[in-house]
Structure formats: C-alpha cells, structure tokens
Amino acid sequence: MARGKQKIEAQKKNAEKNQKSKGSQIEARAAALKTVCSICKAQLANQNQLVDHYGARHPKENPPSVSSSSSN
Questions:
Q1: For labelling, which of 27, 41, 51, 72 has a CA lying 20 to 30 Å from the CA of 66?
Q2: What's the CA gap between 26 and 6, in Å, rounded?
Q3: Residue 2 located in a structural domain
Q4: Does residue 57 form part of some domain?
Q5: Cα angle vertex 18, ends 13, 23, to 5°?
C-alpha cells in the first residue's frame, strides 16, 4: 500500500491515464459519415445506406448515382 505522497501521485497518474483513453464518439461518427442525402441532408456512411434511405424516406425520388453522391 502506498501512503502519503506516493498515494497522491499514483491517483494523479491513474486519473490522467483514464482521461486520455476516453475518446469522443461524436468525432468518430462525423469522420465515418461521408455521404449526404441531397433532399433532407441526412449523413450516411456509404452508397448502400443512401439507396436504402431513399427507398424508405423518399420513395418517389430516384437515388443519385455513385459518381454524383460525393460529400460537400
């Protein structure tokens, strides 16, 4: 068992270690979402999800082709 100064230093070291390991899921999600629906601006990960999205949310519209679904 550590006492006194050693205990305080160990607690600080563990707190820093635990703080660094946690990442932001929001940042990771934003990096993964690259395709955007031109109608409702929903962000999707890939072309397959975009086709499914159009089928479910915009059934009267045709999904854009692969070349025109770039992210801006």
A1: 27
A2: 37
A3: no
A4: yes
A5: 140
* Number of domains, the chain: 1
Per residue in 50-68, pLDDT (tens digit) is 999 999 999 999 888 876 5
Residue 50 placed within a domain: yes
Q: How far is CA 68 from CA 34, 38, 50, 59, in A?
A: 13, 10, 12, 19
Task: Give the torsion sign (CA, 52, 38, 66, 46).
Answer: negative
Average pLDDT, whole number, for the chain?
81
Is residue 63 within 8 A of residue 50, CB to CB? The reply is yes
The domain of 72 spans: 29-72
User: DSSP character for 72?
Assistant: -
Q: Where are the alpha helices (DSSP H) in the chain?
A: 5-21, 25-32, 47-57
Tell me the one-letter amino acid at 30: A
